[in-house]
Amino acid sequence: MSSLSRNTWLVLSLLAVGVVAGVVTWTAAGAAPPGQGEPVTFDGVEFPHGDLSFVDRVVSYKAGEEVEDPCANPDNALGIPDFDAEADTGYVALGNATEVCRAELILEFRDNALVDIPGEDLWIFEIGPAVEATEVYVSTDGQNWISLGRVEGATRGINIADKADPGQSFNFIRLCDYPDGASSYAPWGGPDIDAVGAIGTQPQPTPTAAPGGQAIAPGAQPPWCLLGIALLGALVLALVVLFLLLRRRKRTD
After folding, report:
1. CA distance 146 to 140
2. Would the pTM of this model clear 0.70, i.e. be above it?
3. What is the spatial distance between Cα 77 and Cα 60, in angstroms, rounded to a whole number?
4. Which parts of the chain fold into alpha helices (H)?
5. In this structure, what are the phi and psi dihedrals at residue 134, rounded to the nearest 5 degrees?
6. Which long-range contacts link 236-245 to residues 24+ away (Cβ below 8 Å)?
7. Helices 223-252 + 3-31 axis angle, to 10
8. How far is residue 96's CA from residue 177's CA, in Å, rounded to a whole number?
9. pLDDT in tens, 48-98
10. What is the DSSP code (8-state) at residue 74?
11. What are 136's strand-pairing partners?
């Protein structure tokens, strides 16, 4: 095999790698935005977008009085309702507060956003035998809050129509114990939050986790995409080299 033939095969190999990388990158990028999941029902409430409908991240947690482990883990409020009555797990207690939002839990929707639709939009799953009031707030940025009033324990829905502007969406939910006295005691003081879900929901791209857990904001390129771009660049370079080799061969002939 001549030197020219070896070079040609090398270039063709690079071309093949570039094409495969391009297809993989294009396919992955097209599949990145979340879509609608299969409908799910909890406590008689149907969520048309499935598991996507529930909060994804704890922003902050400030427990009030009468909260002890294992009822002080805010991650228990994430995802679908999963309270286990026998094991007494799957929820987080807010605690008893003497002032509004002295006991609070701030949560974030990451792959969807709360929007207004006809009927009730946001559902709070609170467990336990005591009827414990919870103040509910929403925000677009996690800093400026709009009060939705309070829910009085158990599974309750809220209609945000009177609070949301047309087309407005919210990613942040703030739950606070309403200061109505100590309604329950340690280790599960105050409202016990199992889950928070949005029936009025709008899927949206989510920040991608980079190695080490650091989030990449929407619009930035995750590492796998950068690799794909680099390989596509190699494809273009290979095409240029192949063109030059063919011209050289033609002149030699």
Report:
1. 9
2. no
3. 12
4. 3-31, 223-252
5. -130, 125
6. 236/18, 237/14, 238/11, 238/14, 238/15, 238/18, 239/15, 241/7, 241/11, 242/8, 242/11, 242/12, 242/15, 245/4, 245/7, 245/8, 245/11
7. 150
8. 6
9. 999 999 999 999 999 888 888 888 999 999 999 999 888 888 899 998 888
10. G
11. 175
